[in-house]
Amino acid sequence: MSEQRKSAIIASPYYPSELYGRNVFTLKDMANALPKSVFASFLRQMRGRQTLDKATSDAVAHAVRIWAMDRGATHFSHWFQPQTDTTAEKHDAFLALKNTSFLGEGVHAIDTFHGSELLQSEPDASSFPSGGMRTTFEARGYTIWDTTSPMFIQPHANGTAVLYIPSVFISYNGDALDEKTVLLRSSEAVSRTACTLLNLLDPAPPGHPCIVNQVFTTLGTEQEFFLVDRALYALRPDLKICGRSLIGNLPPRHQQLEDHYFGKLPSRVLSAISEVELELYKLGVPLKTRHNEVAPAQFEVAPIFEEAVLAVDHNLLTMDAIHKVAHRHKLKALFHEKPFAGINGSGKHCNWSLSTDRGENLLDPTEKPETNYRFLLFLVAVLHAVHKHGGLLRAGISSASNDHRLGANEAPPGIISVFLGEHLTEVLRSIEESRPIKNFSRPEIQTIKLGGRVLDVKVSTLPNIARDLTDRNRTSPFAFTGNKFEFRAVGSKQSPSFPVTLLNTAIASSLSDVAAALREQMGDRPYPTDADKLAVIKKFIVSSKPVCFEGDNYSDSWVVEAEKRGLLNIRNAPDAFEQLQDATNRDMLLQQKVFNDSELQSRYHILHERYAKDVLIEVGTLLSMINTMVLPAAFEYRKSLAETCASLVAIGSKDMPERTILDELAPAITALQRDVTKLEEVSKEVEAIEEASVKSHAACERLLPLMDAIRANADFLEHRVPDKTWAIPKYTELLFTSS
User: Fold this and answer.
1) Where is average pLDDT lowest: 288-297, 366-375, 550-559?
2) pLDDT surpasses 60 at 230
3) Is residue 101 classed as helix, strand or coil in its secondary structure?
4) Gyration radius of the chain's alpha carbons
5) Least CB-packed of 51, 344, 511, 649 within 10 Å?
């Protein structure tokens, strides 16, 4: 960033609320630009009550073009989410040519944007992942405007901008080729089944509309990432190509002093993140927090909760902004889940809840959750969903990159369980055992005094503080955190769409099960009694009990205990992907109409195919680095030592510590060459496998162990070869030069 630009930012203090949404074409902007009748027609369409007609779409297109061009836009783009964990866009100019030769005026240029261009576009569908639904000669696909997500502009350095139209992406036959279509379907499935249950609990009088007409899934995505010096990053082929270091040793000091977490943000990092926030506020992205994470050079930003589909759009914009702004500050953002071995990796903690169209959080336990039967019914529905479809949720967060993080000391294991906390656990146990609940309303339980459980002390200048209903369990993959669930196992670089889609769909199915059980319990009664509700709550407490765990998910004892409970312990992504073919999961996804059979089969194929490609890319990168960087450095150092030893022998020296080092190098170099040859052979065999699922399993089982063996010897050589000979930047430089 230029000094002039820095000065401009420093000299212009701003209120975030005044910048918020400046680059977004909001409903307020639309209302100001459109006739009232046209705007009302658009609102009815957006809420699913009518089809968007040509007159309305043309009016909206004209209004948004004027708004965008007044802000420097020269092009528009349908912005969509193919199955690549990123976004895609194709820019079209507003420029058009108008032929008025019949008037004697010839051809002249105009700026135009029609409703048909706003509604849909036609990108090439053959070059995006389709899992076999599209072939090379079947190229046609369509992007369709998602009217529930606002349009926005992205300014560029040259003063121009592009109008972005959030869209879905479907095939010529209408099948979903993207992440957003299925997310929208899953949100509707949750709304449909949740409203059914709510209106069963609180039926409207005859002749009156339903009490609740829509339920929204809400989402807040905490985004973790690393920032490293871009010049050093450029010297690491593994970071550039794979996003993670394939070789490298931890420095003597890394995160063991526990001094980086919530520490002072480095000045260059603070400058970059502040600029990220500035850009995102203008895009209507409500970033709320920023802080150092546990590992050196690791950071986190987190937004305020939003409706889930919009929150996913905003998370992808956040990652894009971090990437672009970091580049301007000569930094590189790493979103890989485990860019550096031996220290904490990065996740994308998805905080998920449900809210009605009346603004009520359905997962708010209130002061007395034991008597809040509506909350308890939704709570046990979540428990039932996670217990029944835990394998499916594991599939949603699985990838070649997240495999390196899951089960390590900073991330949940591959066993999907739920943490509820002491209070809610006691509530459920009391219902299960038909006994009174322990008294959690006593003042000493509701507040915290300085001095803890032992010292009865008080500092007069410090007040007592309110205690939350539950403590936090950072080892749990799916933890209740007050009025929401935190799905902590999602990977940092993946789009939240797919894991949230699977979670939504499992919850929708579970809510149907709860509603059916409640109807059965009611019998002929027109509405359920408290006894009916308690009976259903108790039924699901008992059936889902194995998935609830309050202890340390990292412990070996939990692995043993989980097996006794019948919980799945899926240790790698290819095994997790098989859960999409499991009859229970498959039937549920099809029944809720979130996927059709072709879409589900294609997703299964794409995930396996992507895994194998990721591993094979890493193999090729590792082989290149070993053959062109590691072994040449080792050979050069060995030659230098050998020449030194020969010189010492020539002068009759008997004390030669160089000989000891020389003797240590030979076995490591020999083993490295042997394993490289073996990896080259095996990778060719794996590459030749055609079936995607077989290929991914082979890549996992045959290639990863060889890569680990090669890394061990390469890392040994890194400890021995002098810095002047070792050309690859080490962890010491990468982790401690972002400030």
Assistant:
1) 550-559
2) yes
3) helix
4) 29
5) 51
Distance CA 82, CA 141 (A): 12
633: which 2 tokens?
């450095």
8 A C-beta contact, residue 159 and residue 72: yes
Q: What average pLDDT score do residues 173-179 get?
A: 92
CA 194 vs CA 212, 356, 359, 582: distances in Å: 9, 9, 14, 25
Enumerate residues 6+ apart whose C-beta is below 8 A from 300.
Answer: 222, 223, 224, 225, 289, 290, 291, 292, 293
120: its two tokens = 């849909």
- The pLDDT, as a whole number, for residue 1 is 47
- Distance, in Å, from the CA atom of 290 to the CA atom of 275, rounded to the nearest integer, reads 12
Between the alpha carbon of residue 314 and those of residues 228, 290, 303, 304, 308, the distances in Å are: 24, 16, 9, 11, 10
How far is C-alpha 264 from the geometric centre of its chain's CA atoms?
Answer: 26
- To the nearest 10 degrees (0 to 180), the angle between helices 530-544 and 497-522 is 130
Contact 80, 88 (CB under 8 A): yes
More confident residue, 525 or 2: 525
Contact criterion met (CB below 8 Å) for 668 and 717: yes
User: Distances in Å between the alpha carbon of 665 and those of 120, 366, 627, 634, 645?
Assistant: 62, 65, 16, 8, 14
C-alpha 590 chain-centroid distance:
24
Helix, strand, or coil here: 357? Answer: coil
Distances (CA, A) of 81 to 348, 472, 615: 18, 33, 23
Q: How far apart (Å, rounded) are the C-alpha atoms in residues 513 and 597?
A: 22
Residue 528 has pLDDT above 90, yes or no: yes
**228-246 b/e (C-beta count within 10 Å ≥ 16 → b):** bbeebbeebbbbebbbbbb
Q: Summarize pLDDT for 601-622 with one digit per residue, the tens.
A: 999 999 999 999 999 999 999 9
Q: Measuring CA to CA, which residue among 423, 684, 600, 389 is closest to residue 508?
A: 389
User: What letter represents residue 448's amino acid?
Assistant: I
> Regarding beta strands 161-171 and 73-79, do their DSSP bridges make them parallel or antiparallel, or are they unpaired?
parallel
Place of tokens 């990108």: 123
> Considering Cα of 193, then 198, then 201, then 206, what sign does the dihedral take?
negative
* C-beta of residue 24 within 8 angstroms of C-beta of residue 150: yes
**This prediction's pTM:** 0.93
Instruction: Give the orientation angle of helix 267-282 with respect to helix 308-328, to 10 degrees.
Output: 140
Q: What is the pLDDT of residue 526?
A: 86
Tokens coding 730: 């080490």
